[in-house]
Amino acid sequence: MTTDERAKRPDVRQVCDFLQTFCAVMLADGAQTLRVERNALRIGVACGMAVELAMFSRHIMLTVREGEDGESRTVVRSVPAGGPNFLRVQALNALGWRMVNEHLPLEDAWREMEHILALPSVPPLRLCLLVACANAAFCRLFEGDVVAMLLVFVATLVGFRVRQALGGMGMNPKIVYLFAAFCASLTASCGVIWQWGTTPQTALGVSVLFLIPGIPLINAVQDVLDGHVLMGITRAVQAGMLIAAIALGLSLTMLLVEGTGV
Question: What 8-state DSSP symbol labels residue 67?
């Protein structure tokens, strides 16, 4: 390596700072563990560094080393709280490939990553309407009638808004899911109490499906299959606790409905 090439290459600290933010954001946005690991190793090779990465549900431990006997740097970074954002995961994954294929300088990659992180998310109201439409379609998939679909639509609007409001207050996710499931199922139970339509029971059961943590469950299975067993088990346990909270919220509604004598 020439002197000019060595001077242009980023140092260990710069690569480490970039990678810890890159990997933490990808994990928070719902990326598969193996994808995060491959991107980190790929970017390290592009920068002429060796990278070692250990990932946990709430923290990552990253070591960047220059050569076998060169300078090394190790950091521990917490994974920020957040929900799935596959548009950002896709953009960051593409950025990782560009750093390899197009030899994108680290300074330009930093600017592009900051631009990706600054992109606005889906407006809360629009997201709420889209989720409500999707859950109503689930109701039809389970042979619910038009009345049941309308009940599910309204119930999902109520439950999702409760989830957004309580989540914005920083409340524990398990409590958030319990209250959201209770509010959504309680709204849908109106069809059971007053016998609206021909399939009110379907509306009650489907009203909480929008809360099912499908992405953590899929990632858990993929992580176990890819050899990241600890991460996979952790994600599966967390998803299981959310499902238990959903079931508890739905059970509270069913107890109230049974108390009415329906």
Answer: T
Write down the pTM of the prediction.
Answer: 0.86
Whole-number Å distance between alpha carbons of 55 and 35: 12
Domain around 166: 124-259
- Cα–Cα distance, 117 to 13 (Å, whole number): 21
237 backbone dihedrals φ, ψ, rounded to 5°: -65, -45
Please enumerate in sequence order all residues whose Cβ is within 8 A of that of 45, keeping only pairs 6 or more positions apart, or say none: 100
Residue corresponding to tokens 């109503």 = 136
- Name the β-bridge partners of 52: 63
| Residue-level pLDDT at 122 | 81
Whether the per-residue pLDDT at 129 is higher than 80: the answer is yes
- Tell me the percentage of the chain whose pLDDT exceeds 70: 95
193 phi, psi to nearest 5 deg? -65, -45
Element (H, E) at 113: helix 106-117
Query: Are residues 141 and 29 part of one domain?
Result: no
Q: How far apart are CA 113 and CA 92, in angstroms?
A: 7
Per-residue tokens: 252: 């509270």
Average pLDDT over every residue of 219-237:
92
Q: Total structural domains in the chain?
A: 2
Residue with tokens 């409905």: 257
Co-location of 207 and 107 in the same domain: no
User: Which run of H or E residues covers position 59?
Assistant: strand 59-65
Same domain, 108 and 128: no
Task: Quote the tokens at residue 231.
Answer: 């991460």
| 173 plus 242 within the same structural domain | yes
pLDDT of 28-50, one tens digit each?
Answer: 998 999 999 999 999 999 888 89
Predicted confidence band of residue 170 (pLDDT cuts 50, 70, 90): confident
